[in-house]
From TrEMBL:
It comes from Podospora fimiseda. SUPFAM superfamilies: NAD(P)-binding Rossmann-fold domains (SSF51735). GO terms for molecular function: oxidoreductase activity. The keyword Flavoprotein does not apply. One of its GO terms (cellular component) is cytosol. This is NAD(P)-binding protein.
Length: 415
């Protein structure tokens, strides 16, 4: 794998990263008909449930109409005025600052999950701005170094440091994240951009398998003190093992990274309230799975919904402190994660998936603009389609979730 990467200088994205085996897939597989929600007479919605669903759909339609009217009558004109005036405002700012001799601030950008896929693309995008220090976090050091080496060639005064932190190390990883963020905050007088991109689905060895059997054998098992051990862990196909591992990476440690960055940024802004050169941002990788999730994407969908809501609400909390919190909801993007899903039967054609590089460009542009109002969605057509599904009533939604699982949209195993 490492040799393959070296021979392909155009991309830092490896083909796949330890997909689970076909045998293991079988243990976790489901059959479409067996999980059909309205299979028995008992499970079919009764009249009262049907009426309740009609009321909920009516409520969605009314909310949609009001939201559409508000968007056309209020948000559209404001957006038009802003876009028209923006070039003049930029010009006036440039005139005012042209004699300013203060050297621009050296930016510190910290990215988790930055040795492959979207995280790596974001690292390379931020490396295009000179005078940036990139802090790259993931597990695999050779792939981290590969991204760091490429990043340093992209602009002047790009420096890098890499850190191998395993979020599945239940005992140590929260402290490692905490200490690293404290160190960076002190060294750079504030972290400028913190990007939470590390994430897993159940299509990768080491998420599903107990550590002793995993190709990524260094991953420690659940500690005795962990509350997750109260769940029954009965081997590789255990839904509890799978759930606790995905939760640990996508939520527990990721949240620690996000919230501690928020606290540090808030303290810095309090110490220098008038400082306009320190405009920190936090970028949170959620997913369109937070809008609509195939029924077998249990933990992935749940954790990404959590991150989506955390990002959108935290963006309100950040207003008071001058912290820009940007949630990102990608659709299917070509990366080792989706490559693993494809190997394991995901029926979404690779050709319809978006590019990590284009997503990264959009994220950086939006983060730097400081604009609030909606998450970054890419590819847009996937976001539009799946966002609309939020308007479905629960009975219809369950049926659609089953339908997406039945056609293997997220592969054929529980994740
Ligand atoms: N690709 C998509 O279609 C898509 C769509 C929506 C949202 N997203 C989200 O975007 C983010 C990036 O996804 P991707 O497609 O780029 O996936 P990816 O290529 O598989 O990258 C996942 C990253 O997370 C890191 N990671 C995984 N397990 C870890 C652990 N236990 N401890 C520390 N780091 C760990 C990996 O590092 P190591 O390889 O060193 O473990 C890698 O850098 C994820 O949060 C994902 O949920 C992806």
């Amino acid at each position: 794998m490492w040799r393959q990467l070296k021979m392909a200088p155009k991309t830092v994205i490896p083909q796949d990263v330890n997909p689970i085996s076909a045998e293991l897939l079988k243990l976790n597989q489901y059959r479409s008909f067996e999980i059909y929600p309205y299979k028995t007479w008992r499970s079919i919605p009764s009249l009262s449930t049907a009426i309740y669903n009609i009321c909920l759909s009516t409520s969605s339609v009314l909310t949609g109409v009001v939201s559409l009217a508000a968007s056309i009558v209020i948000i559209l004109p404001i957006g038009l005025v802003k876009s028209t005036l923006n070039p003049f405002i930029h010009f006036i700012t440039w005139i005012r600052n042209r004699n300013n001799t203060t050297p621009p601030r050296r930016r510190c950008v910290v990215i988790t999950g930055s040795n492959s896929g979207i995280g790596a693309a974001l690292a390379l995008e931020y490396a295009k701005t000179p005078n940036t220090h990139l802090v790259l976090i993931a597990r695999d050091i050779p792939r981290l170094n590969l991204v760091a080496d490429q990043a340093r060639t992209l602009a002047d005064k790009i420096t890098t440091e890499v850190h191998s932190i395993d979020f599945l190390d239940y005992e140590n990883s929260p402290n490692e994240i905490y200490s690293l963020l404290n160190k960076l905050d002190a060294e750079f007088h504030g972290i400028d951009v913190a990007i939470a991109a590390a994430g897993v689905s159940g299509h990768r060895s080491g998420v599903l398998l107990p550590p002793s059997e995993s190709a990524e054998g260094h991953i420690p098992s659940l500690p005795a003190s962990s509350s997750t051990t109260t769940l029954k862990n009965d081997g590789p196909s255990s839904i509890a093992t799978l759930g606790s591992r995905i939760l640990q990476v996508n939520v527990n440690v990721t949240q620690q990274f996000i919230l501690h960055s928020f606290d540090l940024m808030r303290s810095r802004r309090r110490a220098f309230p008038s400082s306009s050169s320190y405009n920190p941002s936090i970028v949170i990788l959620s997913s369109v799975a937070s809008y609509f999730t195939p029924g077998n994407f249990i933990f992935y969908g749940a954790t990404k919904t959590y991150l989506g809501i955390l990002g959108r609400t935290l963006s309100l909390a950040g207003v008071e402190h001058g912290i820009n919190v940007l949630p990102v909801t990608p659709g299917f993007i070509k990366s080792p994660m989706t490559r693993n899903m494809s190997i394991l039967g995901c029926t979404v054609p690779l050709a319809t998936m978006g590019d990590a590089e284009r997503l990264a460009r959009r994220v950086k542009k939006r983060e730097e603009s400081g604009e609030r109002g909606s998450p970054v969605v890419w590819p847009v057509w996937q976001g539009l389609g799946l966002y609309g599904m939020r308007a479905g009533s629960p009975a219809f939604e369950l049926w659609m979730w089953w339908g997406a699982a039945a056609i293997g949209m997220a592969g054929w195993s529980w994740s």
